[in-house]
User: Fold this.
Amino acid sequence: MLRLLLLATTGLSMGQEPASDTTSLNAAVREELAARDGATQPGSAGSGEGFGVWTQRADTGGLVFELRTEIGEHYSQDAGSFGTMTHAELADWFGWRCDGSEAQCFGGDWDSAPCPANEHCTPEAVSPALTLAWSDPEAAGSSGFSLGQSVHALVKLGQQGQALQLLDRCVVSAWWCAALEVLVLQSAGSVDAAEAELLVLQSSAPRDEVCRLLDATWLLGRLPLRRPAPATPLPTTYDRWSELGCDARSAASDSIFWLADPLYVVEGNDRRTEHVTRGLLRVLSQEIWDARPTQATPRATQRTLWAEVIRRGPRDSWEVPRVPPRATSFYFWTSRAAARYHFVPDFDGTNLSKPTWSLNGDMENEGYTPSYAPFYALPLQIARFRASADTMQRVASAGLVTGSEIEDAAESGYLVFTDAPESFPLQLEAPFHDGRAVYLAEAETKPHAVSFEVLTSAGIGWHREWVEPLNTAGPGLSDVLLYRPTGMAEPDSLLAAAALMHGTTSLQPAELGLYWELYDVSAETPIEFALEARKADGGGLISSLRRLLPGRGQEEGTGQLAWVEPSNGVLHPRAIILDLRNLDDGEYDLLLKARWDGGEVESARRIEVR
Assistant:
């Protein structure tokens, strides 16, 4: 797997050009895929003009008429069956697959029509487009419609090598040939080669087609699921973007793809190539539906189908309708294999400045499962400290503990800071010790997307969050850093505290060390520190909070501790230990305040006790 091998290198995803020898890369991919599925069709690449439904504008009249007739006849046999099928029959109708070692029936896929029980189980029989393409490959290569449908069929059958051989005959517009190659290569898991073809597509396609294929705003908001009567689509964030022009959506799409890149530590962005692939699959499958001798699909339904595929990927399973089957039955998305992970962050409306990530896909959010490895969430603790007037220090600790297991296959992990789609990321590598990797980065005082990525025996451990800068002017507090007490002297510097830093904010009930820094309060000024611990669900102060004082016993308060000490001046570090052994499981907010004559600052940290 190319991307897994690259994970151990220093390759970066943003602002880099793809491998220069694209021809050799594609040749190697073609040879590998041809050997895998026995492709034997020779050919040579060419160029031409046209595209249309996008594809039929480039078609040769006689071939396309014949193809549309064949498609219409092929998919008409079950057109009137919705009203008479029983519940069980409908489930079987969607579940038919080919027998033996044959690939899945193309005609039985969600986006085509049901395959009549095991009758069309070879590429030639499954798709009339393939029959015509192989009988006259030169004519097929000059028809965007015929070529697109033939490639579509081969991809569905898992015959990517044959699809690439057929594309060697492509003599329609260069960008449409490149688009179909993106579809084939991405579906085969050849992400880097797909990325190279995507650059060809972007440089040669008409502006409106580039905007359409790379419009990532479709990925935002809630998926408009169709529900039983009354059918009320849920609101979608895309509705708020749909009236914007090409330039505005393109700028937003660049940010979305940047924030949704599954891995920052490797070159390329397979979430972008997957997005283009899904759009092409939706176009090609819609052409089949339009060729059937049934009433045209309403525009509103087409838009819903488009959104479903763009956001969730091709459907790989169905739930039987909750109402008796009829022409207006509703179907419910049950795909997990095709859309397990949720890489596109959630935003507040059209504001892209404060994203939040959840790796778990669900029924309403975008989902994408990369081909190269499974992902799993890892914990991370990040704390911010001042470095200078225009830079900040960010210390991070990542843990390899997942549940009751420790993944020890990784020698090191990667922490990546990136602040814009075209920025060159700051990438740090650190070895693991005692189940943790600790990083100290100094970067500009601006927001950053921070990503932790590591390859282990379980797959790819992953964490991502958006980190805003601290205020670096005037008096202020750092974040509260959580560390593991040693029973020795408590840390009196950031480096000492970082060495003991917890790799998570989800902790067992135990003694907990807190380290922070107060900035720019005049020396000898009396500072009153107050620390509160509140239940995150609004339950108020916890019943008891103890502060352990080395050599001096302990102090206890009802959810609050307060003490006074003189300021050290420009930098005032402080560490204390809390006894949390009596806390119930749940989430708690630690609120630290520093007050002095004429000023007050505060900092908060949420923890989970488990």
